[in-house]
Amino acid sequence: MESILIIDDDYNLCAALREELAEVGYEAYYVNNGDDAFPYMEQHKVDLILLDLKMPGKDGFDVLRELADKKIIVKVIVLTAYADVKGAIESARLGACDFISKPYDFDELLITIRKVLQKDI
Ligand SMILES: [Mg+2]
Predict the structure, then answer these.
(1) 44 CA distance to ligand 1 centroid (A)?
(2) What are phi and psi of 35, to 5 degrees?
(3) DSSP structural state of residue 1
(4) CATH number of the structural domain 3-118
(5) Helix 85-93 vs helix 60-69: crossing angle, to nearest 10
(6) What's the gap in Å between 104 CA and the centre of ligand 1?
(7) CA–centroid distance, residue 3 to ligand 1 (Å)
(8) Quick one: pLDDT at residue 43?
(9) Count of C-beta atoms within a 10 Å radius of residue 7
(10) Tell me: the pLDDT tens digits for 19-43?
């Protein structure tokens, strides 16, 4: 089973998305800030991260930078309410595979998740 880690400070979004992903067969977990993501990844296999950009403390850009610094190979889809072109370009530059704007459409998100999980990085 492929595992997905949601990193988002919106607790309700995390809980809802985790349930939606579980219903279609993914093992999904979440943490509510960027700092908790790294200890989690040391303990668990993560195939894909769904990453919010705007979070208090370590934000999504910081998480992308830290993944690169620590040479952690993981696929990342950025999921953010602030669907600005600058954010998308910066995320891609920092290694994100794709970009979805919130509020997300689950079917669209699922297509993107399947596409990203299939490709090599
Ligand atoms: Mg946020």
Answers:
(1) 23
(2) -65, -35
(3) -
(4) 3.40.50.2300
(5) 10
(6) 13
(7) 21
(8) 96
(9) 26
(10) 999 999 999 999 999 999 999 999 9
pLDDT at 1 over 80: yes
Which residue carries 């990203």 as its tokens?
A: 116
CA of 34 relative to ligand 1 center, distance in Å: 11
> How many whole angstroms from 80 Cα to the centroid of ligand 1?
7
Rounded Cα distance between 92 and 75, Å, is 11
Which residue ranges make up each domain of the chain? 3-118
Dist. CA 46–CA 7, nearest whole Å? 12
Query: pTM here?
Result: 0.95
- pLDDT, one tens digit per residue, over 76-118 is 999 988 667 788 889 999 999 999 999 999 999 999 999 999 9
